[in-house]
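Database export, one record per block. Field names are fixed; values are copied verbatim from the stored entry.
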Amino acid sequence: MQAKRGRAYKVELRAIARVLVSSGCKEGKVGDLMQDIARVFGVDLDRAMSRRTVRRAVLEGLVASQVQLGVEMKYTDGNSDSTSRRKLNYQSHHVHMRVPLKNADGSVHLSTDPKIRFLGIASTVDHTTATSQAAWLTIYNDIISTYNASPLGRRLETLDLRMICRVLRGMCGDHENNEKALPEAWREMKHDLLLQELGEERLQQLNEQIDKLQELKQHWVAKKLDDAGGFATYMALPPDERAARDLASVHAMTRELGTEALNELNEADRRLLTVWIWTGCCMHKDQNSFKGGNTHMQTKWKERGVAGPIPLANKDSESAAAPPSEDDLERVENASFGGAKAVALAGAIFENAIEKRGQGDMVELFLQSKLESGEPIKRFPKTNQTRFGSHGDAACELIARRDIYREFLEAIKDLKSRPGWTNIEKNVHDTLDDGPTLTELAVLAIYHLFIAIPYTHRVREPEEVALNAISLGHLHVEVQDHCAMLLETPDLVLDFDEEQYRIATFDGQPVARGEVMVEIKRLYGSGKLPYLREMFVRFLEGAKSTWIRFSSEFAPGGLIDGLNDAEKGRIWLPATNDRNEGALGSFIVYMRGNPTAALATHNGLAMFKRNQTQGFMDMWFSPEDHQYTMRAARHLDASGMERKRKELQMEYNQRILAERAQKVAVAAAKAAEIKDRLDATALISRVEDIHSRGMTRDKLQDQLDKLRALWNTKTQERIVIPKKSHIPRLAEKQTALVNAFQDHLKLLAVSAEQNLGHLGPQIAVAFAREHYYSDDEDFGELEGDVAAF
């Protein structure tokens, strides 16, 4: 069988090559594998496809996907959305829109439900809003240029950025500040391009009204000359600046005409053109409410004045606990504690993300030996990875199988060649017998079972359901009301009556893991869960307030609340950011197995598969379209895009290093200047010197700075000295210096006593005099203070 048609491999074989690579076959093995497969079916391919041809076939998938996106954006009636999620210096992109489909007679209709389209992973040098927006623009411009240059684009109508912005009506993402700033930047761009488009249309209409057009141009020319300072001043400007002013004047005139045209539209048409909605990922809302509840709960122990969970100090903090100096005790007090920290440590032991760490399969084998036959065994939740709900799942697991995990930890301690605990093993073992920590674990498990899991089921509907985020306002009111209901009647849960659980769960269904509630009931009855009711109520208070804060886009009177049914029908936003999270995860897995692969190769494979581009090609492509994708792929392959991408990152890194080095040099010079000034400043020796004539505000500040440099460090403040901006007046600086100088004398005396106390206070005073003051300074004030100690 001839593998080529003319000088190029057949379209069908190139499609098979893409399927094989996307299924995990290495590019260099595809050619031989295709021959082997063909031989099984009695077909003898006359040649094997080379690695380079396979790579180009993959890039053809990228080109075809961009053409597909151009066609779909051209035909869509306005249902669109974009969302981004950053991880390291990579950004994932998706759009959501109704896509064109061909009928049997060749006519085109739009899909009933919106489809999700993957636009690829982009490498960004940083995580700023401007860089993220530039990445989006690069992707859109690539789609526009690829589509417009294609035969399919020439057969249909051309596409430009204005058309895309006209149908973009919102974005979704997580709740970080830069994620919220990106949609705002796009809203401003959309509005600006809309005014430009409407203004240009108005100018076209004025071409038939010569008098009005002439009058308009004269007005803006006069304004341009006035802004420049007159005609003579304008003509004296350099040509480049005159050209820039001319362009700015035309732009301003067009915007003004566009604004007039927009205001003349009826309310419905104007809202359709200008509406822009942002929604936050529902899984991030759940994650933040869980965190908000936990943070609020942990403050209750100190407020209640009772012993809280044991501190889970790291190895350094634990070793620092003996001998217990004040600094050491402070380090232990500041160590993390509580149920959330316990499940994080447990995850590091029982299911570590790094395969060489933790116990991994040993845990699974131990569970198999302890659990009854047929009882399901699941791996411990990966709490040391960013998995939604992992901490709640882990709390349930630790509560339900607490005794087994304690026994396992004791077993691995004794199985070592040198039996003993590691610090993390001992911490987890101790938490599973600590009442306050178990109380927090129980609260985490209860919230996870009764609210978090049912909520997750509601917002993670199958793709076929096409759940629209803007329709979920009522859902978030319900979850807030449900928290309020449990706050008023916590006994619905804490009476441990299974008949009442359906009332207490958010979805009215039985709890997902009934054995967890059975174990909590047993621990509560045995007195192992002190203050469970108070902590549960406290957690719900924090969770409810966080739900309100992170559901602000659905607030009454807001943009989403003001949409009518027709407008809601033209906007579709996904409920979660799972697509982008998954795309980034898939990219990391792909690069782990293909470390030398180019980013475009991954995008070509992922976009072609997820966007079902092969079906689009079968429906829309002609032979000349296939030829175009081959030419464009060869051009991409020869363009060195991967090298350019890496060079761009290196240039950015070098620029940042140079900027930081300059900042360090400036800071060092400033610090040296301050040090020289303070070294030249003689420290006062008496309190009376503070109020002497000639002691200006600047001199007082120098004295404060000298004392600060003498006693305070970045991590320890031995003398309390207010910031300069907090004491601007002379009297305030005098008071601050009096207090600081008295503290200085006390510290100086203590220091001298500690170093030379065995020789008596007078010798200590003499030592201090010699090291801190010149011979002609009065030392009487210090001597009296030393005698007092």
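Remark 1: The chain has a mean pLDDT of 87.
Remark 2: The chain has five domains: 4-174+577-639, 189-279, 283-564, 640-680, 683-788.
End of record.
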